[in-house]
Each structure stands twice: as structure tokens, then as C-alpha cells.
Write a structure and sequence with these properties.
51% of the residues lie in helices and 6% in strands. The protein contains six helices and two strands; from the N terminus they run H-E-H-H-E-H-H-H. Strands 1-2 form a two-stranded parallel ribbon.
Amino acid sequence: MVDEHTREALVVEVARRIDSERTVSVLERIVAHRGRSPELVRMDNGPELAANALRAWCRLGGSGACYIESGSPWQNPFVESFGGKVRDEVLAVEAFDSLLEAKTVIEDWRNTYNTVRPHSSLKWKTPAAYAAGWRT
């Protein structure tokens, strides 16, 4: 999950199966950590994202839900770009021996992405530095 404003990679969930209940659980963790629900949750129409559990979470938590059209990745460019980076820089070059190893390597990469890599769209700040400046 990516914050569209700060470009922060909020979480990269690594599991053998991710369903709507797991997606809601991840959103709950993000809300607990950040202190409030997002104004809008933009997502594709995958079954784990279009399910009633997620729609109910958005409605009850006061978040809007914005579904992109099938086959229209340009409607969700930040997460598409992020997903490409994860694929190119981690998934295409690593062979994981266990789920724990995958979680560890991907979390390390996510932290590096947020704290070391500057983004041109953020005036060459890292997502973490930009977010910290935005909050103060």
C-alpha cells in the first residue's frame, strides 16, 4: 500500500494468500499507526479489494473507495510504479527459501525505499523525510 501524497510504502504484505479480511487487517494496522483513516482508498477490482468486508470497512471508517477500471493501470499510477519497482528490484532478483525470508528481505527493501531513495516528485526528498516535513 502506497500513500499517494507522500509516496511512502506503508506496507508490503507478504503472505501465501491475501483475502479481504487480511486486507482489512492491514488497513487497521495502518490506521492504528498513523492515527486516522485515509480519505480515499484507491484500488483495483481484485476479489480481495472488491469484497463486502473492505467496502464495509471504508464505509464505517469514513474512507471513500475508488475502484479503478479493469485493465486501466494508469488510473492508479503510484502503486503501479511501486509494484514495478518491487518486481524489478526484489522479486526478479531474489530466490526466497521461506516466507519469513521473503518478509524480511521485502521489509528491508521497503525501509530503504522510504528512507534512502529520494524521489524527483518530492523535490528529491525521501518519502519519509517528505512525510515528516508535511506532518510538522
